[in-house]
Amino acid sequence: MSSSFVTSPWFRFAFPLMLLGAIWFGMNNVIFITRSNIGLAGGLPYALFLCSIAVAYIFKQSRMAMVACAMLISYWVIQNRLQTPLYSGTTLLELSLLSFLLPVACLLSYAFKNGDLRSRSFLVYVLILGLFGLWSYITVDYYQSSDFNNLKQGILFSMPYLSKLPFILVLYLLAMIGITGIFVLTKNRIMDVFIYTAILMSSNTFIFFQYQFVSSTMFSLSGVLMMLYLISASHEMAFNDRLTQLPGRHALDIDMRSLGRNFTIAMIDIDHFKTFNDTYGHDTGDDVLKLVASRIRMMRGKAKVYRYGGEEFTVLFKGKLAQEAAEYLELVRADIEHYELVLRDTDTRPKDDKSGVKNRSGQRKKSVNITVSIGVCDSKTERNEYEAIKRADEALYAAKKAGRNCVKLAS
Prior knowledge:
Layout: H1 3-6, H2 9-25, H3 27-36, H4 38-58, H5 62-81, H6 91-108, H7 120-144, H8 149-153, E1 158-159, E2 163-166, H9 167-186, H10 190-207, H11 214-239, H12 249-255, E3 263-270, H13 273-280, H14 282-297, E4 304-309, E5 312-318, H15 322-337, E6 340-342, H16 353-360, E7 367-369, E8 372-378, H17 385-401, E9 407-409
Parallel strand pairs: 8-9
Antiparallel strand pairs: 1-2, 3-5, 3-8, 4-5, 6-7
Helix pairs in contact: 2-9, 2-10, 3-4, 4-5, 4-11, 5-6, 5-7, 5-10, 5-11, 6-7, 6-9, 6-10, 9-10, 10-11, 13-14
């Protein structure tokens, strides 16, 4: 299974649903196994969430740790507060409060920046979770000393054939699953699928709370997926360039070991990049790098693109020689040449959005054109892939000497 398929939005959206379907299909077996290993099954979610928080601490993924904390606390509440019949005491009210607050707590992590777990933002998040708990305690305490039946017959009415949970909360949880699922399909970030999975699994717990061992099963599955997503996030940090979102040198070194018999390597360099940085500043330089990366990423011919370093990019073509690959490279070179980059005018930029909209109308924006030089070498010219990349670099300098903005093949 290719990594591009595994990281595609549709796979990330569908994979937790497929696992969930498999679990429900074999629920009788799950119950039998859980009953046979009740101690291990009951403690597994705690271990998984604590491991997730530890891994998030190592890789400074504080927002993922926030979600793991919310899931850990929720599971503790289920195990220590909600193990009595739903219609006795305030159990239904407590379940309702938990099912309402957990998705809010998960989505609240979006409001914070990623960082260290010792940062102020993480402490603020934990404080907010504490306030949620205090509000829930006050609410439960109030209804313990008053008539709770009116609330059950009113806003918290349920449809027992569908779920013991109040119907309005069932709709709410389905809406939360839908919203976070849309985030996965449209933005496809690790954080999106992390939250989507947490809400999906916890919602199944709340909606089907009457089923035996449903909480330990769903929260364990959520913990396993969280660990996978954290490993995936650490993989992206190690292999992907943060600015351009392209694979970096580490990924290039690994992929070069499996190029096969026929291959082509191209080195791409942005012309006059230092001049852009000196003239317009590093922010514009970053915009140039992101623009070029976005145009190269769309290259056809099954090309794999990497950021080599600085303003240089590397393209690998498996199963293609230089003449065939040069056609795709020429198309990209021409595409970049004709693309106009609008410059950000930070000196005269208004302080508020309203003034910015007013000034924008009728103003002509300043833009620049970017060009790239490309050097190419294939396995027919140089059999060793590491020597081939050096020959492609030599061809790149030949393209620079020839006036830039052109493609040169290694001879």
